[in-house]
Structure formats: structure tokens, C-alpha cells
Design goal:
homodimer, mainly alpha, MgtE N-terminal fold, CBS-domain, Tetracycline Repressor, domain 2, 3 domains, 3-stranded mixed sheet, 5 strands, elongated
């Protein structure tokens, strides 16, 4: 339902952009929710992104769109502007958002842009850049509404009525040293007689985290206590910033993606269009290496039980290795694709691009591991023909497994099913059959 | 950190409960956050739960604790009371919470309790019970703050100051037919001159869902637009209820668990202490059946390439099946345990109980599939000794795989690591080696 609406928007804006119908396009963009525009940018190519972004004239709106975008896309877009333009936009963002973007830029560009921001702003960004992005410090916004504990409820309401930027639901209460001593909700504030002081009505027992707290701990706290925001304090309990529930939701989704991908040894986050083959290989390398080492170990152990030079004995002892390599790389592809489709980060129309990327990973890994495994087998057992067959079978079956693993979730999604369901044992068995049959056929031919 | 605090609380409350030190225990409980108490109840046994729950004298507090508990625990606890007591507590809950609990009770008990609730309350619960729990209707609370569009800002603030229950951050605006026509945040309301009407200041373009919307769609919308609550309306746009962001966070975690478990064919939710062996077997059956069918198919196909009655040919052709069965059931165990530890639903101290449960599943599945696979192999190839060996190898390797799969994540968690990391290819390879070596050894002995 949501998907359909975005698809129509995507087609319409693309068509208008191609025709150069800027006026009609601007009209549509102005009526579209910022979050939807950010989503559209995921599907545009670089040229479309530049062209369509240039149609926003209002600096604040530009900043809103940039804040909602995937960081990598924001970096790409801002890198294409003059540092002055980029700095002007970044200055409008919340510090936590601008920090994420600046931290992802090449260092020289980041420095150039920071130099062009007002010093108060760039100092905040530089301070936040000191925190790891997966910690409370990396998540927090330094934008919060805190008042002294002696303030009255009436003064507090007056203060928030004049604070242009106030956009929170809790009022934090601090003492004269800036230490966090209490919290109250906007609702409590509104329901209190104006003359009472905040210290009389606040909840004094505030749960907070330090900037070094891991993001999954932050998520666990917000989840458990149903908070809408969580304050971040330093060791002396001085209020530093605020983590809002919408950022926590992003963390939870991110952690779920990480858990799913880690289960298949496919890294920690979904690759983006800008991820290089080298990076993709590096992500998937350790898991395949462990499979390879484990499989070689299995081969040597199983070989103990078998005739040293029998053809079937050789095939059987390398069977767990061969099946393991194909299954694991196929499983990595299937997991990445299913998760991407599931979270909406990939779309069915991306199939060509993603298949090319996966096949590149499959071919490169296949050749490396095929050569290594064949080499080890030959060195151990001096069975040249069989080893060559094993080597070729590893290459071929890893490539075929990637092909099956990548296309199956797309096929499921296309048929209206759940792409995750493509990772059934039947898909795995298909990979098994291909691997073993390829091995046997190759061995018979090459060793004949 | 959080875990440490809970552990201390758990030990202290257990000790005091065993000593019958009710007064000291009550004092601690009164100082403990409801969410933490609900968490403690996950670790208490049934007797401790009853005893400790009885210490809460305040009905409202009882209701708060019940609302935060896992549904199955709440059902257990309320089932042990008289229907009058249970009804009194349930009446204090939000309708969405009481509905979840009543819907999970045996029908006769649910009817008895509903009959004892005030009719206005029980009607609401019965109405909500009509919605599937995985839909917007099942998630929504019928508790919201809506005012007519002609209301002035001043009247609105007065209304929410007198509404005892008001606990939201958005004010919904409806017309004379109860149709949702706008929304405004509490912050906007506070910042508006008192004489202006809501229709002048509201945001008229409200994103809402119908009660039939799937919960993952709800989550996607709240996530994309950073809402704190999402209204639910019927087809005519009449406001029915509200889904709050804390419920959405639970949905996102639930969906993540579902995704992770589905990847391993281990059902959709983590088993609870009350889940029966039969239910656990049913959950894991389809995935294992697919593995079995796929493996048999592979065996028949591979067999084509090999000597019909050769020992190694037989072993090789059933190799993918044997490895697949062991890997898959081991993987199911490892996935369940790792996810449970990861979300905090399981604790290291649960190892004995969970290992027993998993071993029961492993033994039962092993015997069923071992017998079936051995039978099919014997029927196809008339190799009785080999088939018996295969059968025994399937049973033994499935049990060993469950043992490895269950203990590995606990071991990782115990060593301070990430339990998810226990599911590496090395664990899988360990299962492979055990399977093949068992098969070969058994075949040599039994077929000799």
C-alpha cells in the first residue's frame, strides 16, 4: 500500500525530471512528506538526485530532506556542492544528524565544510564527532529543553512558548551546576498551578546514560521503560544531550539487520550502491574462510576412515567442504537480498544491479577459494585430476549458489510473498544437488 | 550494567521471599520500576510469582505490573486468582493490554472473567478481541484524547487539565460525526493564543491506518514519519483508537525476532516455559521435513552417478541429507537460544531448563526422521545394514547437533561475547564432522 504510493511518486517525479518540467515537479515535491522524499532519493541515480534536490529553494526544507536521507546519499549530494552551500545546509540540521554526515565525508572535505560553518555550530559537530556512532554520544542531540529547578510552572510554559525550536515532550530540570536533577512531561507541566516550582512537581529519579553507553543498551532501556527520550549525562551527572525515540527505533531496526546479517556472516549492514567489490569481499571473507578451514579439517578427518586413493572416498571427504562453501556464500546473498527487500532498502527494480554485484562477489570468492582448496587437496593427496575437479566444482557451485541465493528472494517478493521465505531448506538443497552433481561430473571428466 | 542491577534485585527479592520477609520485600518492590518488576517475574517460578504479586496491595499498581508482564505470565497469574480478583485487576488496564491477556486465556475462564467486569469495560475488550493481535486493531488502545474542531485552544487545555487519564502527546481533532479531521501536538496547543479554534491550528492531513492493517505496516509508517502515535480509523474515517510508539517498538522487536527465527525455520516467536514439547515439535517440523524431502531428492539424484551397491556411493549420496538434518536442527536450537539471550528473554541461568527442552525436541525429531530416512533408504536400495547405519547416524547426529547448538550460545554469553556469534561456520563444521564420522563408523560396524 505504502509501496504503491511511493512507486507512483517515483515514476511521476522521474518522468517530470526527464522532461525538465521543473514547475510541475516542484509542486509535487512541495506536497510530499519529507520522509517520502528521502525515500525517493534512495531510488534516484546521482544525476536525478542533483537535479531534483536543486528544485528545493528553501534552505530549511533542504536541511529537512538531507536529515531524513541515508547518510551515504547525503554525503554524495553535499560533496557535489560548493563547501559554502554544503555548510549552509548542514548548519540547519540537528547536531547529531550533521555530525553523522560530516563524519562520513573524506577528511579534507569535512575540514573545508567545518571551516565554513559558524564556529558555534562547527564546535558542536566536532565535539560530537568524538563519540563513536554506535554509542549514546553518537546518537544524542544536543538540543534539549532544560530549566533550573527553581523555575515556576508558569515561567516554564512562558519559556517554551517563546523557544522557537522547542520540539520535545519532556522538560528536564537542572540545578545551578547543570546537573540533571529531575524530569517532567509537558502534560504534567500544563496541569500544574503556575506558581509551583519545577522541583516540587518533577520526577527526581531520572534514568539516564553516559555518552559511552552502547546503542543497544540505549534501545533496551527505552524499550523497557517506554520512554520517548533518554537524557545523556557525563560522569558528574551534567546534562549533555538527549536521545529521542525515533532515533532509538532506527537503532532497533539497525540492530535487527545486524543480527540477521551476522547469522549468515554477511557483515553488519546492507551494502549500498557506493560499496566497492573489495569492501563486499572483505565483509564476507571471514565467514567463508572459517567454512573453508572447517571443511578442510572435516576432509582430513573423514579421509582417515576411507581408502586413500579411491575416487568416492575423495569426493566424500570433501563433500562437507564443498557443500559448506556453496551454502554459505549462497546464504549470504539470500540473507542480504531478503533483508534489503524486507526493510525496503532494496526494491525489486534493483535486481539487475544487485545480481551483478553478488555475481562479482561469487566469482571472485569462487576463484580464490577454488584455487586454495584445490591446491590444498592436491598437496595433501597428490590426486591431481580429482583436485582439479574439486577446484572447478568449488568455483562453479559458489557462483551457482550466489545466483540461486540472489534471485530466489526477488522471485518470492515478485510473487507477493515474503522474501525471507526464499531461504528455505529447499533452496539450500538445490545448492547441494548442484554442488555434488557438478563435482561428480567434473571429476569423471577431468580424472578420466 | 542493566543486567547486573536486575540480577541483584532478583537475588535479593528471592532471598527475602524465601525467608518470608514480606515487609522488607514490599519496601523494595515499592521502590522498583514497574518495568523491572515485570522483568523479574520472567525469572521467578510460579510459586514466587504468586507470593510476590500478593504483596502488592494497591489495585492500580497490580494492574501496572500485569500490563508490563509477558502475556503468558499474566495469564498464569490471573488464572490462579478468583475470577472476581482477576476481573478487578483487568478492569484497571488499558483495553489493548487487557484484551491481549483475555484473548490468551482458556475460553471458559475468559468468559467467566468478562462476566465479572463492568459491562462497559467487557464490551470494549470483546470488541477488541475481534481484531487479530498482529493487526492495527489488535495493537490499538481505545484511549485517546479527541476534541471537536470548533473547540478553542483555551478550552482544550482546560479539558486536558481535568482529564485524569490524559497521557498522550497529540490531541486529535474530530468533526461532529466523530471523523478524524486533524491533529496537533500538545506543544502546538500550549503555544497558541487561547481563543483560536483547533481547526485553525491543526494539521489537517493526518496519516492513519485501518484496524486491519498489518503490524509491520504500522511499524514501517511510525518508523518512517517519526510519529509518537498513529491513529486508527474505520473506513468512514471515524476515529477508533490509537497506537503508541512504545507498542510499535515492541512490534519492531517482535518482527526482528520473527525474521531471525524464520531464517532458521524455528517458528515465529521464542518458546516460553509453558510451551509444550508437542508445540515445539510442530514449530520445527516443516523446516526439517523440507530438509528431509530435499535431502532424499538429492540422494536419489546423486545415486544416479554412482555404483548402486557401493558402500561409499551410498554414504555419499545420503551425505547432503545427513548433514542437512543435523545442521538444520542444530541451527534452530542455536538461533532460538542466541535470540533469547540477545533480547533478554532467556538468561544464562536458564541453561538447564532450555537444554532439556531442546534435547527433548532433538530426540523426538531424531527418532522420527531417523526411522523415516532409514526406511526410505532401505526401500529404495535394499541395503539393510547401510540403511540401519544411516538411520542411527541421523538420530545420533541430530541429538549431538542440538547439544552443540544449544550450549554454544550459552558458552559465548558466559564468556562475555555475543551469543549470536556462536552460530559460526565452525560450529556448523563441528556438526558436519560429527555427522559424517558417526555415519561411517556406524556403517562399518553395522554393515560388517
Amino acid at each position: 500500500m505504502l509501496g504503491e504510493r511511493i512507486k507512483v511518486l517515483l515514476d511521476t517525479t522521474r518522468r517530470l525530471s526527464r522532461r525538465g518540467a521543473s514547475q510541475a515537479l516542484t509542486k509535487i515535491l512541495n506536497k510530499t512528506h519529507t520522509a517520502d522524499i528521502a525515500l525517493l532519493f534512495r531510488f534516484y541515480d546521482s544525476r536525478e538526485r542533483r537535479r531534483i534536490f536543486s528544485l528545493f529553494t528553501d534552505l530549511e526544507r533542504k536541511a529537512e530532506v538531507v536529515a531524513e536521507m541515508d547518510t551515504s546519499i547525503a554525503v554524495e549530494l553535499l560533496s557535489g556542492m560548493t563547501p559554502d552551500q554544503a555548510a549552509a545546509i548542514l548548519q540547519e540540521l540537528e547536531y547529531d544528524d550533521s555530525t553523522d554526515i560530516v563524519a562520513s565525508m573524506p577528511e579534507t572535505l569535512a575540514a573545508e565544510i567545518l571551516a565554513r560553518m559558524e564556529s558555534a555550530e562547527s564546535e558542536q559537530v566536532e565535539a560530537l564527532m568524538g563519540f563513536h556512532e554506535d554509542t549514546a554520544g553518537g546518537l544524542m542531540s544536543t538540543h534539549y529543553f532544560a530549566l533550573d529547578k527553581e523555575t515556576t510552572a508558569g515561567e516554564a510554559i512562558a519559556a517554551l512558548q517563546t523557544d522557537e525550536d522547542f520540539d520535545a515532550f519532556y522538560v528536564y530540570v537542572i540545578n545551578e551546576y547543570g546537573h540533571l536533577v529531575g524530569v517532567l512531561s509537558l502534560r504534567q507541566l500544563v496541569r500544574t498551578p503556575p506558581s509551583r516550582q519545577l522541583k516540587e512537581i518533577m520526577i527526581p529519579d531520572v534514568i539516564s546514560v553516559t555518552p559511552g553507553a552502547a546503542q543497544d543498551e540505549v534501545a533496551r532501556i527505552v524499550e523497557r521503560y517506554n520512554f520517548l527520550a533518554l537524557p545523556v549525562v557525563d560522569e558528574s551527572n551534567k546534562l549533555l544531550g538527549l536521545i529521542t525515540v525515533d532515533d532509538v527505533i532506527d537503532v532497533i531496526t539497525e540492530e535487527a539487520t545486524r543480527d540477521v546479517l551476522k547469522m549468515a556472516g554477511a557483515g553488519e549492514e546492507l551494502p549500498e550502491a557506493t560499496t566497492t567489490l573489495r569492501e563486499n569481499l572483505a565483509t564476507r571473507f571471514p565467514w567463508l574462510l572459517m567454512t573453508c578451514i572447517g571443511g578442510l579439517l572435516a576432509a582430513v578427518l573423514i579421509h582417515q576412515y576411507l581408502d586413500k586413493r579411491s575416487f568416492l572416498g575423495f569426493v566424500l571427504s570433501f563433500c562437507p567442504l564443498l557443500l559448506g562453501m556453496a551454502r554459505n556464500i549462497g546464504n549470504q546473498s539470500a540473507t542480504l537480498v531478503a533483508r534489503g527487500l524486507d526493510t525496503g532498502q532494496f526494491h525489486i527494480s534493483h535486481i539487475g544491479q544487485i545480481l551483478m554485484r553478488e555475481l562479482a562477489v561469487g566469482c571472485a570468492s569462487g576463484v580464490v577459494y577454488g584455487a586454495a582448496i584445490g591446491g590444498v587437496a592436491a598437496a595433501l593427496y597428490h590426486t591431481w585430476g580429482y583436485s582439479l575437479a574439486l577446484s572447478s566444482a568449488v568455483v562453479a557451485s559458489m557462483i551457482v549458489a550466489v545466483l540461486i541465493g540472489t534471485t530466489a528472494p526477488f522471485a518470492f517478493a515478485k510473487l507477493g510473498g515474503d522474501p525471507t521465505q526464499a531461504r528455505t531448506p529447499l533452496t539450500m538443497t538445490a545448492m547441494d544437488i548442484v554442488s555434488v552433481v557438478l563435482f561428480l561430473a567434473l571429476a569423471k571428466t577431468l580424472a578420466a
